[in-house]
Amino acid sequence: MISISHKAKKIVVLLIKILIVVGAFYFIYNQLANNDKLDWVQFKSVFKKNQSVLGVSFILLLSVLNRYFEILKWQNLASQIRHITITESTKQVLAALTAGVFTPNGVGEYAGKALYFSKSNAKKVVFLNLICNGIQMVLTVVFGLFGLLYFNALYHVITSKTVAILFGICVSIVGVLFFSKKINIKGYSIEKLIGKINAIPKEIHQRNILLGFCRYLVFSHQYYFLFLGFDVELPYLTLMSAVTTVYFLASSLPSFQFLEFAVKGSVALFFFGILGVNEWIIIFVSTLMWFLNVVIPVIIGSFYVLNFKTSEILTD
Q1: Per-residue exposure over 188-220, b if at least 16 CB sit within 10 Å of its own CB, e if not
Q2: What is the dihedral of CA 234, 240, 241, 242, to 10 degrees?
Q3: Contact 272, 250 (CB under 8 A)
Q4: Cα 118 to chain center, whole Å?
C-alpha cells in the first residue's frame, strides 16, 4: 500500500508539472498568435531601420537585471530562514513565477516558493515573499502617484476636485488602518504584522528596499528605451510619467500573469494615446515587455518545474 501511495504521489506531481508547463506555453502562444493588433509588417520595418546589436543587447541586459535584482531580493529575505545560493534563489524565483502564471496576481508564486522549505517554515516563506513583493508594490505606488500627478498637470486627465477626493480616500484608508491596528481577525492584526516586520533586521529591509528600487528603475527604463527604439520622441519626464502611471494603475488591477501584457497594454493605450503615440507601437512595446520579463522567465522556470522532485519538498 505504501509503494502504491508513493507511486500515485509521483504520478500526481508529474501531471501537475506537465499541466503547468503545457498551460503556460499554450497561453503564451495563444496571446502572440491571435492578437490582431500586432502589426508584424510595421514592426519588421521599424526593426530593420533601427536594428542594432548593441541596442538589442542592452534591452536584453535590462531583462536579465530585472530578474537578477528579484533573485537577489529573495536570497536576501530567505536568509531569515536559511542561507541559499544565487543558483537556489534563481531556481525558486523562476519556478515560483511559472507556478503562479495561472493564478490572480501570481498568488501561486507563494506556494511555489514554500515547496523549497520545510513545512514548519511555510507561513514564514509566505510572509517573506509578501515583504519581497510588498516593497515593489510600495515603490510602484509612490512613483506612480508622482507620475500621475505630473502627467495630470500637463494633460488634465482628471479634475483637481477628483485628485482631492482620491487623496482624501488614501488618507482615510491610512487613518482607518492606523486606528484599527489592534483589532484581531482570526488571531491576526496590523499591530502583529508590524511587529513581525520590525523583527526582521534593518539591514535586511534596507537591502530589500535598495534592490527593489534598482529593479523598478530597470523595468521602467526598459519601457522607456523600447519607445525610443520605435522612434517615439517625447520629453523624458513626460514619457516616464506615463510609464510610471501605467505601472501604477495596471498593478492595481487584479489579473493573471499570462494576461499582464493585455492589462498593461489597455492602460498604456489610454495614456500613451493622449501623448499621440501610434496604437500599434503601444501594443508592441507592451507585448515586448511582457515577453521579455514574463514569457522568457516562465520558459526557463518551466525547466525547473519539470525537474522538481518530491524529495525537494523539505520535511521537518
Answers
A1: eebeeeeeeeeeeeeeebebbeebbeebbbbbb
A2: 70
A3: no
A4: 25
**Residues in the chain, pLDDT under 50:** 1-3, 315-316
Alpha-carbon distance values, 4 to 7, 13, 175 (Å): 5, 14, 56
Residue 115 near residue 102, CB atoms below 8 Å: no
Which pLDDT score, from 0 to 100, does residue 128 have? Answer: 93
User: What's residue 307's pLDDT?
Assistant: 79
Grid look-up 500627478 returns 149
Q: What is the pLDDT of residue 191?
A: 72
Q: What is the pLDDT of residue 2?
A: 46
C-alpha cell at position 127: 510572509
So what's the pLDDT on residue 84?
93
Distances from the Cα of 277 to the Cαs of 42, 132, 260, 284, 294, in angstroms?
Answer: 14, 34, 21, 12, 24
pLDDT of residue 165: 79
Please measure the distance between the N-terminal and C-terminal CA atoms of the chain and give it in whole angstroms: 24
C-alpha Rg value of the chain to the nearest Å: 21
- The 3-class SS string of the chain reads CHHHHHHHHHHHHHHHHHHHHHHHHHHHHHHHHCCCCCCHHHHHHHHHHHCCHHHHHHHHHHHHHHHHHHHHHHHHHHCCCCCCCHHHHHHHHHHHHHHCCCCECCCHHHHHHHCCCCHHHHHHHHHHHHHHHHHHHHHHHHHHHHHHHHHHHHHCCCCHHHHHHHHHHHHHHHHHHHHCCCCCECCECHHHHHHHHHHCCHHHHHHHHHHHHHHHHHHHHHHHHHHHHCCCCCCHHHHHHHHHHHHHHHHCCCCEHHHHHHHHHHHHHHHHHHCCCCHHHHHHHHHHHHHHHHHHHHHHHHHHHHCCCHHHCCCC
